[in-house]
Structures are given as C-alpha cells and as structure tokens.
Amino acid sequence: MGENQNVYELLATHLDRLPSGFPRTPTGVELRILQRLFTPQEASLALSLSLRPETPEQIAKRTGQNPEALAPQLEAMSRRGLIFRIRKGDEPRYMAAQFVIGIWEYHVNDLRPELIQDMNEYLPYFFEKINRLKTPQLRTIPISKAISVEQAVMPYEQAHHIILEQEKILVAPCICRREHQMVGEGCDKPMESCLVFGTGAEYYEENGLGRFISQGEALNILENAERSGLVLQPSNAQKVINICTCCGCCCQILKNLKKLPDPAHYVASNYFASIDADACTLCGTCVSRCQMDAVELLEKAASVLPERCIGCGLCVSTCPEEAIHLRLKPDEERTTPPAHFLETYKRIAKERIARMRQADGRTDLKTH
Ligand code: SF4
Ligand code: SF4
Ligand code: SF4
Questions:
Q1: C-alpha 348 to ligand 2 mean position (Å)
Q2: Taking the complete model, does pTM exceed 0.85, yes or no?
Q3: How far is the C-alpha of 155 from the C-alpha of 160, rounded, in Å?
Q4: How far is CA 213 from CA 175, 202, 217, 363, in A?
Q5: Please, what is the average pLDDT of the chain?
Q6: 186: alpha, beta or left, given left = phi > 0 and alpha = psi -120 to 50?
Q7: pLDDT tens per residue, range 160-205
C-alpha cells in the first residue's frame, strides 16, 4: 500500500471513531471520496484533530509542529469544509469535523458529478449502518399548523419557538436537493431552506455557504416549507443548532428511511397522525402530501400506517375536511431529546459501541 493510500485509510478510521461515524464498505468507495476531498497533507493534518476545539499553538505543541506554519494550513482547511472552526473573540480554534452531518454538508458549493456519484453509492451504506440507532442526529417535529391549541407541546418541538430563541440565524442551500438536481434528478421544492444557528451559522457565513437572515425571514422560510410539503427536522437536542426542511425524494435521511417497512421506529418523533374515517371524503390530498408513503386509501376512508408515520403533520394542515389529527404517542414510546448536542453525540457513540461490541468486539470510538 502506498504512503498516500495509507493516510486515507488512517483518515477513514479516524472519522469512523468520531460519534457519527464513517463506516467502511466492501468496495472502498469511502476512500475514493476522501481522496476527492483531502490532499494527502490535509488528510495527515486532519488525523491530529479531535472534537475538542484547540488553538493552532495547542495543536502544534501536541504534534511537535511549528505553530506559525500550522496556523494558515488549519485556517485553509477549515475554509474548505474539511475541519470545523469556532472563534473565541478573534482567536480561532480548530476541531475535527464529522463526515455527516459535517464535511459533506460543508461542500454544498463544491459539488462535482464524480463526487455526487460516489456519495450516492456511499450514503445508503452509511445510513444502513448509522441511521438505525436509537438516537438519531435529527428529530422530526410537527409543522405548526398541525398542532391544535389544546395540545401541550414542548418548546423544542415548536419550530416557531426555536426560531424566536435564536440570535444568529443563517439560511443555506439544501445539499440533498442540489446534488440530485445536478445529476438531473430531484424535485422543485425550495432550495434555500437549511437553517443553521449560533456557532454553526458563523462558520457557514465565513465560508460563504449561506447568508444571515432575520427571525422574520426564518419564519417565512418555515411557512414556505410547510406549503411546499417539507418535513421539519431539527437537531436532536433541546438546544437546537439547525433545522432541516426535507423532502422524501432527495433528503438522504428520509429517502433511506422510506425504503424500510417501518420508518416510524427509527425517527425521534413524539407524534403520529390519525384519521376520522367518518369525516374523510377520500380526496387523496393526504396521500400526495405524505413524504413517507404512510397513508393509504381504503374503500371507505384514508388510513394511516402507524409503522410508517413519522408525525410530521404535513397531511393535517391540508385535509379539506379537517379529518386528520396529530396525536401524542403513549408515554413509553415518547423520547426526550438530550439537553445539548454534545450529549446527543455521546449517546450516539455509546449506541455504536454497544452495536460494535455485539458485532465484532470493536471499542475504539471517541466521544470527545
Ligand atoms: S437533510 Fe433535508 S434540508 Fe438538510 S440538506 Fe438534506 S434534504 Fe436538505
Ligand atoms: S385529505 Fe382528508 S378527506 Fe382527503 S383523503 Fe385524506 S383524510 Fe380523507
Ligand atoms: S401520515 Fe405522513 S404526512 Fe401525515 S403525519 Fe404521518 S408521515 Fe406526516
């Protein structure tokens, strides 16, 4: 194995040890992807970063390098979406970026057909391995119009509330829809639709991946998402760091979940839809609104398949007979998201470790 090939092997292992993972495939497509994104020097430098933010001086000291030479390399890599950067005042700190959600999304403005082709080979494999954990990276919350006034809904499940809590909001293009469109597939749903908050918003803005917007514009984007039939998927924590607005045809998460017979078991959602058969006139609107093929038209009324329903509420707001209602799942099926996203990562890492122990005895994941 050549020296350069070896550094990509090491990087693949390094990324797989981070909580959200980078599973290896029998075809090795993941190494091809890393070669398209990182030079051998960048791959080597990425190996020395963890999820702990550090100054160039700290990284240089730890790795025996010259801090003056290292600082511009770290900055350039963070600008190219290969590692993450936060700023304390004017002082930058660098840390590893996970692959998904992370490095892949940071390449929304740098997509090439060969990379898209490799990613479309890789992502189904990735989600097969990672997506079916008890704690997903994103949860599903209902659109506002699907929540009735009598329902008590937690603040982290109310999209409006999440927006009104934010000081810095950025909107970025949707990489899933963009990559599908670039290869002649995909849909005509809104492109500018990924909302990113706080530190992530600063990173996206500095890297030219999106633009800052007001709370008012963010609320308009949510309304447009609701009209367009997009599922709201915020980060799976009570302190929300982003909201994705997703379609079942392009979103790599929903698309892969949709292939399963029981997607409801793999999403973090506290709701499900139910239909009042007496009020239903079989108009079929709910069937076309549902991104998960969770509604079927029976002889007398439409009916929701509970194992497919992810509680997004898209069918509720457009039923002309007001025959559909969102209901809270029973206590034992509800989930409370971790307080902070770091806790989410810890849970994901623990679940992956437990799964690997069962499969092949691996215990080498890092949670920080
Ligand atoms: S997860 Fe959803 S919003 Fe985010 S990039 Fe994919 S489809 Fe777009
Ligand atoms: S949208 Fe309402 S009326 Fe139309 S099929 Fe669905 S439940 Fe029935
Ligand atoms: S039936 Fe479909 S559209 Fe309605 S809440 Fe369930 S997943 Fe969403």
A1: 38
A2: yes
A3: 9
A4: 19, 12, 6, 43
A5: 94
A6: left
A7: 999 999 999 999 999 999 999 999 998 999 999 999 999 999 999 9
Atom of ligand 1 nearest to the CA of 246: 2
Distance 226 CA to ligand 2 centre (A): 17
**Would you say the C-alpha torsion 210, 216, 222, 227 has a positive or negative sign?**
negative
Residue 139 has which token pair?
């949860």
Residue located nearest, by CA, to atom 3 of ligand 2: 280
Predicted confidence (pLDDT) per residue in 234-276, tens digit: 999 999 999 999 999 999 999 999 999 999 999 999 999 999 9
- Nearest one of 172, 50, 190, 182 to 117, comparing CA atoms: 182
Strands (E), 77-156: 83-88, 91-96
| 103 alpha carbon, distance to own chain's centre | 12
Q: What is the mean pLDDT of residues 309-327?
A: 97
Quick one: which atom of ligand 1 is closest to the CA of 247? 7
Output the CA 166–ligand 2 centroid distance in Å: 36
259-287 as b/e, with b when 16 or more CB fall inside 10 Å?
ebeebbebbbbbbbbebeeeebeeeebbe
CA 230 – ligand 2 centroid, Å: 18
Identify the band that residue 72 occupies on the pLDDT scale cut at 50, 70 and 90: very high
Q: Is 245 touching ligand 1 by the criterion CB < 6 Å? A: yes
Environment class of residue 24 by beta-carbon count within 10 Å: exposed (0-12), middle (13-18) or buried (19+)?
middle
Residue nearest to atom 2 of ligand 1 (CA): 246
Q: How far apart are CA 79 and CA 67, in angstroms?
A: 18
Answer whether 294 contacts ligand 3 (Cβ < 6 A). Answer: yes
